[in-house]
Amino acid sequence: MGENRVNSTGFEIPEDFSESQKYFPTQPLNVSLFSEIDENYESVVYSYLVKQLRLDASIEKLNLDAPEEWTIAQMGSGRLHLQFLQFLIRLTRARRVLEIGTFVGLSAIAMAQALPNDGELITIEKFEKFRDLAVKNVQKNGLREKIQVLLGDAHEMLSTDAVEGGFDFMFIDGDKGRYLTYAELLLPKLSERGLMVVDDIFFQGDVFNDEPRSEKGRGVRDCLVAMTERPDLDVTFVPMTNGLMLIQRKS
Predict the structure, then answer these.
(1) pLDDT for the residue numbered 133
(2) Of 120, 107, 127, which Cα lies nearest the Cα of 241?
(3) Which of 13, 124, 128, 211 could join 5 via S-S bond, C-beta 3.0 to 4.6 A?
């Protein structure tokens, strides 16, 4: 057994300190100088970044209608999550966006706000109840000219020419058991330098079990494995919320 190392801050680094501990915000070196011991580190980091990015009321001011059984906070993407999607859309200079899984339209509205004036976003929702709420929310936020909410089974619609290709940005966030099918159907519809983002790619940890315990976990893991094994794709991961997988064709 060797001696523990000490870094420049005076924090003692355990002998078995591994690369995996550098991946998430709570890794020991990140909290070595955090002195607010009565505060939750993750909450402090989140609140600070939301304030610095001026996202304090970005969701509340949208005045969204939500279903009775869930709140926006429970089912919708968080403010940092949405801002990251907006950043990627602006970075890629996307004009056409496709989303799988609309829910009540929160992420669609956020992404559409990052598009240029002539941009368009198509989002597909399987359940009529959520489609109707999304349409109402899109209209309330003045984006009916940019956002088209389609009702139907995304698998069936993508298997035909119902949705034309040429999308610069794609966001997959629905029907997790079919993630791989969606990714394979969508890749031909992605523009040459387009970016595909797959949400919830860690799916509550089930993806990393030897054998995923849920159908959703199996579907997400199948997608993760298949996409990372394709030699024609560049793939990376962002450990934000429940994990994001970013996919782009190799140039």
Answers:
(1) 94
(2) 107
(3) 13
Residue 250 near residue 234 (C-beta atoms within 8 A): yes
How does the average pLDDT of the chain come out, rounded? 88
* Dihedral class, residue 200 (left if φ above 0, else alpha if ψ from -120 to 50, else beta): left
Residue type, 231: P
Residue-level pLDDT at 9: 46
Rounded-to-integer distance, Cα 172 and Cα 183, Å: 8
Cβ neighbours around 250 below 10 Å, total: 8
- 102, 122 in Cβ contact below 8 A? no
Please count the other Cβ atoms lying within 10 Å of the Cβ belonging to residue 50.
17
What SS3 class is residue 171? Answer: strand
Q: Which residues of 173-185 are buried (b: 16+ CB within 10 A; e: fewer)?
A: bbbbebbbbbbeb
pTM of the model: 0.88
CA 45 from chain centre, in angstroms, equals 19
Class (C level, CATH) for 60-249? alpha beta
